[in-house]
């Protein structure tokens, strides 16, 4: 019998993996964004109730492997998954996308959280936020001298000092350059997500001489096997999906 996989997703890499999985496998989404309609595998939307709830799900659904392809900044989900796998005696594998590295000409300002972002932005007037939803909770805190451009997956009305752009990558250098110029961006705020889909903003910031306020990655749990690309994961799962992951 084919071993059953629980794929924890929500990223483009996770979706690429999910598209290769058959109907016995489960693709889990936290509930943000659009649910793909073109998948053969089962799709589960919503949380599990922490590590304990996930461990129960693994046992109840006879899951043989958990594959964590969540965002590098989804640290709590990854921590819960690793703990649940230990409790349920299920292997925990993970996609650990390599972070971006500063290139010659880059001006990165490293910060560790929202307070650091606010402090680093004090000298600037027109930041572009590419942090996902987090800035939406702070729109009422936009300083009088600033106007924010926030790019995330969900539409939002914004207000007089904040423009919200709902868009999903990949983004091109041409598109990023046009946005930077049209919105008079003077600083970019980013997570170090890695990958090619959203890297163009860094190249354009370098080209235009703009600083990047970069949020440091949180620590993530170790996995029994770690992969650096979706294709590597797809190839390995294809070779393993007809036998036990404990073998």
UniProtKB/TrEMBL annotation:
The keyword Oxidoreductase applies. One of its GO terms (molecular function) is precorrin-6A reductase activity. It is an enzyme of class 1 (oxidoreductase). Pfam families: CbiJ. Its EC number is 1.3.1.54. Keywords: Cobalamin biosynthesis, Oxidoreductase. Pathway: Cofactor biosynthesis; adenosylcobalamin biosynthesis. NCBIfam families: PRK08057.1-2, PRK08057.1-3. This is Precorrin-6A reductase.
